Amino acid sequence: MYGNNVVADKSKAFALRIIKLYKYLINNHKISPIANQILKSGTSIGANIKEAIRAQSKPDFYSKMNIALKESSETEYWLELLYESGYISKEQFESVYADCCELLKILMSITKTQKNS
């Protein structure tokens, strides 16, 4: 996908999973408000990382990565709501939630490192 950029590759793969989850929610549960929210936040992670890769400065890079971190956190929230309200199964939740948490950890590390440099 993006070559040697692990976070960009993982965020794009995650976005594709979120798109599939969105389709599942719309087709099987007809819940568009939450589906729209998770689609927006879950795909925004990779978009902001992609923008950060082409950042014009270190502050611009940090800003975009921090936005990606915030979008990851929001996506984590929507996933928890979907599971706790019974719209997705435990298996569905655990799989996609693990990917979300992995992105969160990577982005927290990146933003912490950038903030301290």
Structure explained in plain terms:
- By secondary structure, the chain is mostly helical.
- It has one domain (6-116): 23S rRNA-intervening sequence (de novo design (two linked rop proteins), Up-down Bundle).
- The chain is built from four helices and no strands.
- The chain starts with 5 loop residues before the first helix and ends with a helix.
- The mean pLDDT is 94.
* Main pleated sheet: none
Instruction: Assign a percent range to the helix content.
Output: over 70%
Q: Tally of extended strands?
A: 0
Output the number of helix runs.
4
CATH topology: de novo design (two linked rop proteins)
Domain count: the total is 1
Overall, the morphology is elongated
Class inferred from helices and paired strands:
mainly alpha
CATH superfamily: 23S rRNA-intervening sequence
Q: Please give the alpha-carbon distance between the first and last residues.
A: 28 Å
Task: Output mean pLDDT.
Answer: 94
Name of the top-level CATH class: Mainly Alpha
- Beta-strand portion reads under 5%
Rg from Cα: 14 Å
Low-confidence stretches: none
Going by CATH, the architecture would be Up-down Bundle
